[in-house]
Write a structure and sequence with these properties.
single chain; 326 residues; mainly alpha; Ferritin; two-stranded antiparallel sheet; 12 helices; 61% helix; globular; binds Phenylacetyl coenzyme A
Length: 326
């Protein structure tokens, strides 16, 4: 329960909503107007936004971890600085998104508690390890590219605070993408060993990236209502197709191969066909049983425990700071 909202589990449920207000709300959405936190909204719209923005925020903060472990090992000072800035950006994105979710009534403490207890989900991709420097390059290029496709699309959506956060995030992510591409190009045009390393990383990340866009539309639980209320401005399959259109040619251009023998574009429809990326693995990973789920949550749990004294100190009445000279 958050404020006057009772979170109802299940499919779209507008039975508790005033039909007149609901009709006005839907007209507003249809006209392309934005919803602000103080505007009336159906309980299910609020519930869906909290779920999605909260998961997005968790993804950013957990998403800092696979690359974060490479800051000390990045090759060269310039790459170290760039990676450190990227990781800081991702954590900053989480702050923007937690703030956007808070406008809907769920306190940040509850969101963090749900993350570290394993109740809330976060993006599947961050439950895989970054074994080599090339893994970080593929993350920064192709996962940031996937995130941009999703976020640019949804920044045109209906909930104003989320759209504002997404616009700002996308500006920063576009630098991440350039940084990632630069690293991939360096490896792909480097020594035989570097090429091998980046190809191996691409092979490892391809399936998780296919999963990143969510299950196929026919298996998706939430897409229909999210599209109806313009929270999602494209379906999971549409965004995955956009990724193929934009990035498959760029990957091939670098002489890299994609580990899916069934991947091909239908010349008549323009649709990409692809092999089954193992949706059973996707389900296992998002439900807590991926290669790094336990490790990722343990890091967040430790951070939460170690930061407790800072949060407590901030709650206390402020004391006048006395400098040695005053
Ligand atoms: N991972 O009915 P749908 C980033 C869950 S940010 C985990 O299709 P929906 C930046 C879904 O929650 C990355 N779970 O769901 C960065 C639902 O479970 P629930 C995050 C997933 O909401 C880059 C169930 O499956 N971006 O990368 C995933 O309509 C580099 C049924 O699925 C966002 O969160 C998944 N991939 O569509 C940081 C964007 N897919 O809640 C560091 C906002 C689905 O019923 C380094 N979110 N599930 O228990 C969205 O656009 C949507 O929520 C989707 C899923 C498209 C992710």
């Amino acid at each position: 329960m958050y404020g006057s909202l009772t979170i109802v589990e299940g499919t779209i449920d507008t039975s508790q909503d005033d039909p007149v207000l609901l009709a006005e709300f839907e007209d507003k959405i249809a006209r392309g107007e934005k919803i602000e936190p103080k505007d009336w909204m159906p309980a299910e719209y609020r519930k869906q936004l909290i779920r999605m923005i909260e998961q997005h925020a968790h993804s950013e903060i957990i998403g800092a971890l696979p690359e974060g472990t490479w800051i000390t090992r990045a090759p060269g000072f310039r790459r170290k600085i760039a990676l450190m800035a990227k990781v800081q950006d991702e954590v900053g994105h989480a702050q923007l998104l937690y703030s956007a979710a808070e406008t809907l009534g769920k306190p940040r403490e509850d969101m963090i508690a749900d993350l570290i207890s394993g109740k809330s989900k976060y993006s599947n991709v961050f439950n895989y390890p970054a074994f080599t420097w090339a893994d970080t390059a593929v993350i920064a290029w192709l996962i940031d590219a996937s995130a941009i496709i999703n976020q640019v699309t949804n920044s045109k959506g209906s909930y104003a605070p989320y759209c504002r956060a997404l616009e700002r995030i996308c500006m920063e992510e576009s630098f991440h993408l350039k940084y990632g591409y630069d690293n991939v190009v360096t490896l792909a045009t480097g020594t035989a060993q570097q090429r091998e390393m980046v190809q191996a990383a691409l092979n490892r990340w391809w399936r998780p990236i296919m999963h990143f866009f969510g299950p196929p539309d026919k298996m998706s639980q939430h897409t229909e209502k999210l599209v109806r209320w313009k929270i999602k401005m494209a379906t999971n399959d549409e965004m995955r197709q956009q990724f193929f259109n934009q990035y498959v040619p760029k990957i091939w251009e670098l002489g890299l191969t994609i580990p899916d023998t069934e991947l091909k574009k239908d010349p008549l429809t323009g649709e990409w066909a692809f092999g089954d990326p193992d949706w059973a693995e996707f389900k296992r990973v998002i439900n807590g049983d991926g290669p790094c789920n336990a490790e990722r949550l343990a890091v967040r749990r430790t951070a939460e425990e170690r930061g407790k004294w800072v949060r407590e100190a901030l709650q206390k009445p402020s004391h006048k700071y006395v400098t040695p000279l005053s």
